[in-house]
Design brief:
By secondary structure, the chain is of the alpha+beta class. The strands form 2 sheets. A 5-stranded antiparallel beta sheet has the order 3-2-1-8-9, with no helix packed on it.
Length: about 270
Amino acid sequence: MSSMLESINVINSAIRTGLVLVFLAIFGGGGYWGYRQFATERGKFAIAERELLGLQDQLGKSKAALVAAENERKVLETELAERVKQIERLQTSLQLLKVDQRLARLDVLSVELGSEGKPTKTKVRFTELSPAGEALSAGREFEFASDVVYIDNWIVQFDDQFVEAADIEKGTSLCLFRRIFAENQAPEQAYSLDEIGMRPQAYARGGAMSDFEKEIWSKFWDFANDPEKAAEKGIRAANGQSVSIQLRPNMSYSIQLRASGGLTITPLK
């Protein structure tokens, strides 16, 4: 009986030992598996964290690049707007430099021919015009013993910067019609058109002559001979200029002044 009990105890002890070993094996294996899983997940988390930090860094760089691009866009827009203005100013300036202002009209009233078929008497009418092209007076009539007529003038040209800026006083060349005569006529026998020092009719726009204009015409030859004095007034050139044309019967001619240049006489259609 005693032996049987001892055998039972041994068996029970072996069973308990086996169960403990099984438990330890299961627990140890589970712990190792759990540790492996934890380590794996922790590694994945670390990788994900690094990737997140990388993405955040890229996002920061992208935001900075976007801000820089936006600032550059604003700068380019500003530069473009300024260049557009410069182009518009340049186009306006070029247009102003090419503007022709009608100052007078010369109408051929009659041309009489001599026995040899050469003109012996030409009758004309000289009419000064407003900037709008309207007659400022009824016009003056003259007779010449030739069909080639000269119109003598004083011309004042200002620096282009004033013309480009459409300056009120210096935005266009000035012209004073002095006299008209034929090719076979002595200049001292020429007909006077505008009195020296008086306001040219072409610039009579309803107001008194400015002090600037009075000084220009009263000291015309001083400005013509003194470049420094002329430069103080913005004058590029002051000189006499004559235009001439061979007149044809029943024709009319336009006398024009370019803003930055001199005088021309051309047939009217």
